[in-house]
Amino acid sequence: MTSVIAQAAPAAGQAANPLLTFLPLIVLFGVMYFLMIRPQMKRQKEHRQMVSALAKGDEVVTNGGIAGRVEEVGEAFLTVEIAPNVKVRVQKGSISQVLPKGSLKAS
């Protein structure tokens, strides 16, 4: 009878460099940052600056599409005149854009 002796499995070679293993993930995160996160942060910063610069007499459009002239500026709210003697209070953050002066009279 022959005896069989188990042999150890051959070494699988050296382990891959951990940096090379995570390199695709790091590159993917970098691409996502520059294509999605950074532009969104830039838009938010521009919107905050626009809202903080609002003053009485500015012509604005809200997120809901209502256009009017700013009558009063508060800490968190604005009073916007949307028609003669018709005023609404809106949150400052709901202003989507500031129109050039005279835009409402032209329409």
From TrEMBL:
Gene Ontology terms: biological process: protein transport
Annotated membrane topology: Single-pass membrane protein
GO cellular component: plasma membrane
InterPro entries linked: Preprotein_translocase_YajC
Keyword Repressor belongs to the record: no
Subcellular location per the Swiss-Prot or TrEMBL entry: Cell membrane
Transmembrane segments: 19-37
Keywords: Cell membrane, Membrane, Protein transport, Translocation, Transmembrane, Transmembrane helix, Transport
Family to which the UniProt record says this protein belongs: Belongs to the YajC family.
Record-given protein name: Sec translocon accessory complex subunit YajC
The organism of origin for this protein: Dyella thiooxydans
Lineage, highest ranks first: Bacteria, Pseudomonadati, Pseudomonadota, Gammaproteobacteria, Lysobacterales
